[in-house]
Specification:
Largest sheet: 6 strands, antiparallel
Strand content: 15-25%
Structural class: alpha+beta
CATH superfamily of the largest domain: Transferase(Phosphotransferase) domain 1
CATH class of the largest domain: Mainly Alpha
Number of helices: 12
CATH topology of the largest domain: Transferase(Phosphotransferase), domain 1
Helix content: 25-40%
Strand order of the largest sheet: 1-2-3-4-6-5
Number of domains: 3
CATH architecture of the largest domain: Orthogonal Bundle
Bound molecules: zinc ion
Shape: globular
Length: 435
């Protein structure tokens, strides 16, 4: 048998159909990925190297279970069909990755950059939501690392790949994970990967996504003459220290080495810094306190996105919902805009031209951060006048400053300076003006 399957070779699928090889797309330690055709449509086939999988029978059954259960959300490049065992191995079929998605590791290597702050924050939201839904479906991912994501740099859309290690909660496929992403207790060999260890790995992935450096790699890692196995066990397992741990400054980022962390960390609002400080505190890392959940992150990043506005210089920046802010690009002072306080300060949406209002802002029972409900626009005749346009099918009742109620239907605009509150079907948004 040749090392690779040639063009035209037919691999039988478990469902009785077959996949015809078109070409080899890539190769990793575990196997080869081919472009294939099934009944006239193109897919990707991941084919395992012989002997690459521990306990192949269990692995195959787990894949079969995942195929039957289906993807948690459309963000997953999920196994769709299994092949029959051929030549002592097997594989599975998934959708092909569209070209606009780039590898996460390319972002870390500065080969690709996010187009804007909001595309980076959207990517954080999409990754977090993907894992939340995965965990809610009773799975753990087990091997979360920088090789698992493809991201569209223009809008932050995410595809989560390598879902072959995903297993029901409590099951272990014998995978420990990738160094630098594994939870300390997995590094120390005290525990097998599960939902809790996924939470740690998620915090590392999110930190790297936004700050492009590693949260545990600062001064002491740079100063180590040689990263021996013993030191690795110390830095990532027994005694990990977050580079911005407020109680311990022994591992701060080093100028010239960790330039990204030094540049990006101060740009983010305090409440986001605090989330990472909590998630990567010594107590959370050693398991003394519980770890940040996917849901905590999703709420935090939705709130963060509420504070992103486009400065007149053209660059996106964070607004300070509590006071004035300076643009991260041009440094110009941006006075605090009116803020829509939703669900008793659960969210605070900066009402600045270009900002979008989502389902979660108007519905206290929803955390949908994707469905656009409204948009802030400038009045074309008078750019100093801003209005909130309803783009949803839900009629809003706008309470004006003089206390009258005015219905705003789809397509209509309410001038922001005249609004006191907006009554939605099951919640109220109150506008707070700067004093
Ligand atoms: Zn600016």
């Amino acid at each position: 048998m040749a090392e690779y399957y040639p063009k035209g070779y037919k691999i039988p699928l478990a469902n009785g159909s077959y996949a015809e090889i078109i070409q080899k797309l890539g190769e990793g330690g575990q196997g080869v990925v081919y472009r294939v055709a099934i009944g006239g449509k193109e897919y990707a086939l991941k084919w395992y190297h012989k002997g690459a999988v521990q306990n192949p029978k269990k692995f195959y059954q787990n894949l079969e279970n995942n195929v039957n259960k289906g993807a948690p959300t459309k963000a997953f490049l999920w196994p769709l069909y299994l092949t029959q065992p051929v030549d002592g191995s097997f594989g599975y079929i998934m959708e092909l990755r569209p070209k606009n998605y780039r590898e996460f590791s390319d972002f870390l290597l500065a080969k690709v950059h996010f187009q804007s702050l909001s595309s980076a924050v959207n990517a954080a939201l999409n990754i977090t939501n993907g894992f939340r839904e995965l965990h809610r479906n009773g799975f753990s991912y087990q091997d979360l690392n920088d090789g698992n994501f493809f991201i569209d740099p223009t809008n932050g859309d995410v595809l989560i790949c390598d879902n072959d290690n995903v297993a029901p909660y409590g099951e272990s496929l014998g995978i420990a994970g990738k160094a630098r992403y594994m939870a300390p207790e997995v590094v120390r060999n005290l525990k097998r990967p599960d939902v809790m260890t996924d939470r740690f790995s998620l915090a590392v992935v999110l930190f790297r996504l936004l700050f492009l450096d590693h949260p545990l790699e600062g001064k002491r890692v740079v100063e180590a003459p040689c990263l021996t196995e013993e030191l690795e066990l110390k830095y990532y397992g027994k005694d990990p220290i977050f580079i911005y741990d407020p109680t311990d400054d022994s591992n701060r980022p080093v100028r010239g080495v960790h330039s990204n962390a030094i540049k990006f960390w101060p740009l983010y609002p305090q409440f986001i810094q605090n989330k990472f400080i909590t998630a990567l505190s010594k107590d959370a890392m050693t398991g003394k306190t519980t770890r940040m959940t996917d849901n905590d992150w999703q709420l935090a990043f939705t709130r963060l996105r509420d504070t992103i506005i486009t400065c007149p210089c053209g660059s996106e920046t964070f607004i300070n919902v509590a006071g004035d802010a300076n643009c991260v690009n041009c440094g110009k002072k941006i006075p605090k805009p009116p803020v829509l306080n939703c669900h008793n300060h659960k969210y605070g949406l900066a009402l600045f031209p270009g900002v979008k209002m989502y389902r979660c802002h108007i519905d206290k029972d929803s955390d949908d951060f994707t469905q656009v409900i409204g948009e802030v626009e400038r009045n074309p005749k008078n750019p100093a006048m801003w209005g909130l346009r309803n783009v949803s099918d839900i009629v809003w009742n706008v309470e004006t400053l003089d206390g009258t109620l005015k219905p705003i239907a789809k397509g209509q605009i309410a001038p922001i300076t005249a609004i006191k509150a907006i009554h939605f079907p099951n919640s109220i948004g109150i506008i707070e003006y700067s004093k």
